[in-house]
Amino acid sequence: MSMLKPALLAVLLSATALPAHADDLGDVQASLDKLTDRIERLQDFSEVEDLPRYYSYYVDKAQWRSVADLFAEDGILEIGGRGLFIGRERAFEYLRVGLGPIGPRDGIIIDHQNFSPLTTLHDDGTAEVRAIAFVMGLTGWGHNYYENDYVKEDGVWKIKFLHGPFNMYASYKEGWVDHTIVNTWPAKFEPPPDLPPSVMYLTYPSYYVEPFHYPNPVTGKPMPQPDPRAGALAYGQDESE
């Protein structure tokens, strides 16, 4: 981007027949600043929106080192109810120890389809993305949300906090109609987390609505907070039942 302003300035000045007075140059510079900011913002938007895709394709082939390298040094990983793994190397340990060896293996399918990313950029060099994913893992399939935080460090966007609560997870044989896993938990498998889960909830047939990080784009109003019963009552039962 450092070469962009001089180059565009030369083009704009050569394209005008007006004398290059100081006032004219000031107007051109102001327009150029706005254009440069707009281009940088669009580039940031594209790079942030691509990060979940890199993540998904690396997960597909169990490229755990490449997945972990997407995290900031102090990034946090939280998937399901396993708890918080703090730091890039701890994220790698969760993936390598908890999910198996690096690389594809015979008889194992890992498919991580990421959909509908909604990206919000902030002026302080951070961003948030909400997305959904359909996953096929080692022992079953599931559906989960993402509400992720990203940070730009030395011009590179990285994962600051990957938060992926499950909506549903079930075995391949029985499916989500007849048998579901209510959620994972810290002691379900190695390694242990650094901190307990940031939120307690139950998956389908109960329900949990991950809070929306963005307001309604038409009204500007924040989205309603989750029903306090969500995750607290098994199977979504009413208090009267």
Fold and architecture overview:
The structure is a single chain. The protein is of the alpha+beta class and 241 residues long. It has one domain (20-236): Nuclear Transport Factor 2, Chain: A. It has five helices and seven strands, in the order H-H-H-E-E-H-E-E-E-E-E-H. The chain has helices spanning 4-14, 22-60, 64-68, 88-99, 175-178; strands at 71-79, 85-86, 111-121, 126-136, 140-153, 156-164, 166-171. Strands 1, 2, 3, 4, 5, 6 and 7 form a seven-stranded mixed sheet that branches. Strand 4 (126-136) and strand 5 (140-153) form a beta hairpin. It is globular, with a radius of gyration of 23 Å. It starts with a helix and ends in a 63-residue tail after the last helix. Mean pLDDT is 85; it is low at 1-5, 11-18 and 231-241.
List descriptors.
single chain, 241 residues, alpha+beta, Nuclear Transport Factor 2, Chain: A, 7-stranded mixed beta sheet, 5 helices, 7 strands, disordered N terminus
Please give the CATH class: Alpha Beta
Which sheet architecture does the biggest sheet show?
Answer: 7 strands, mixed
If you compute it from the alpha carbons, what radius of gyration comes out, rounded to the nearest whole angstrom? Answer: 23 Å
Strand content: 25-35%
Query: What's the number of helices?
Result: 5
Approximately how much helix is present in the residues? 25-40%
CATH architecture: Roll
Taken from the alpha-carbon principal axes, the silhouette is: globular
Low-confidence stretches: 1-5, 11-18, 231-241
Mean residue pLDDT? 85
How many β-strands, per DSSP? Answer: 7
For the terminal residues, how far apart are their CA atoms? 62 Å
Spell the H/E element sequence: HHHEEHEEEEEH
